[in-house]
Amino acid sequence: MWARNAVKNAARVLGTAGQARSLQVRSFRVPREAENSKYGRTREDYVRVLDTFAQHRACAVLRTNSEEACSKAMEAAIAGGFKIVEFTLTTPGCLNVLADFRKKYDGKILVGCGTVMDIEDGQNALDAGAEFLVAPVLIPEVVKYCASRNIVIAPGCATPSELYEAYLMGAPLQKLFPGVAGGHTFVKAVSAALPMLHINPTSGVDLDNAGDFLMNGAASVGLVAPLFDPADISSKNWDAITYKASKVIKNCEKAGPLKRKAY
Predict the structure, then answer these.
(1) Which of 96, 58, 92, 93 is nearest to 78 (CA)?
(2) At residue 259, what are phi and psi to the nearest 5 degrees?
(3) Which residues have CB under 8 Å from 102's CB, separation 6+?
(4) Neighbours of 27 (CB within 10 A)
(5) How far apart are CA 258 and CA 262, in angstroms?
(6) Which residues does 106 contact at the CB level (< 8 Å), separation at least 6?
(7) Which of 54, 88, 129, 254 could form a disulfide linkage to 114, CB 3.0–4.6 angstroms apart?
């Protein structure tokens, strides 16, 4: 059960004997009944979400223990320039806030949901209006469910093998989590060897190095604690979050939009 159109990821890498070899082109097809189901998305919507990631390349990822703070902190990040936001299910009232933001910013801000651990979590997030889903780990049934319905999913992966496995399952974005030794140099090495991937690092990305990740192979990045400092949230220092958002967005803009590969 896979996405409808063939993914044109014709990539070449060096084999162990120094000979260039072609990687297999993966074909994904969405059954019509899945696309037409309650949770199915059109191919056009799928491409729209991925094009938004390719254009802006930075996502504000919020975890907090306060529903009230959740709204105000994310408003501050948007004021600083973020066009893609993610609310995590570990936040109280996450889906209520997500629904409010989707209504308020529909067509202006891309709104997603993180910490999706099973299909029911994903369905609840989609019911609230989530335009993409993120998981902290690689959960095959969730990835395949999303891939069969044109739902953009970014599962968490910790190794090159997991990143590639997520790609084979149909995940168009692969979240690098947790942070790895080497930071952007690790991403550069992996993306060079596996150019069909669209790696999205989160842990280990900060206000100063976000642009370095993007210029060294990352398709996009997620900003978590460096953007949403718990001290700023507890003291209601929303201006500090806006300032940090503006700083990191300027660093990311230096990398420019991603020339998106086929998904």
Answers:
(1) 58
(2) -80, 95
(3) 111, 128, 129, 130, 131
(4) 12
(5) 12
(6) none
(7) 88
By DSSP bridging, strand 199-201 and strand 174-176 are: parallel
* Angle at CA of residue 244, ends 238 and 229, nearest 5°: 65
Cis amide linkage into residue 31, ω under 30° from 0: no
Contact 74, 99 (CB under 8 A): no
CA–CA gap between residue 143 and residue 172 (Å, rounded): 10
pTM for this model (two decimals): 0.87
Measured between alpha carbons, how far is 53 from 38 in angstroms, rounded to an integer? 24
Q: What is the pLDDT along the chain (263 residues), one digit of tens a residue?
A: 333 333 333 333 333 333 333 344 444 556 555 666 789 999 999 999 999 999 999 999 999 999 989 999 999 999 999 999 999 999 999 999 999 999 999 999 999 999 999 999 999 999 999 999 999 999 999 999 999 999 999 999 999 999 999 999 999 999 999 877 789 999 999 999 999 999 999 989 999 999 999 999 999 999 999 999 999 999 999 999 999 999 999 999 999 999 876 65
Distance (Å, rounded) from C-alpha 89 to C-alpha 98? 10
End-to-end CA distance of the chain: 15
**Residue 183, beta-bridge partner list:** none
Q: What is the DSSP pairing of strand 20-22 with strand 153-154?
A: unpaired
Whose CA is closest to 193, among 11, 1, 4, 13? Answer: 13
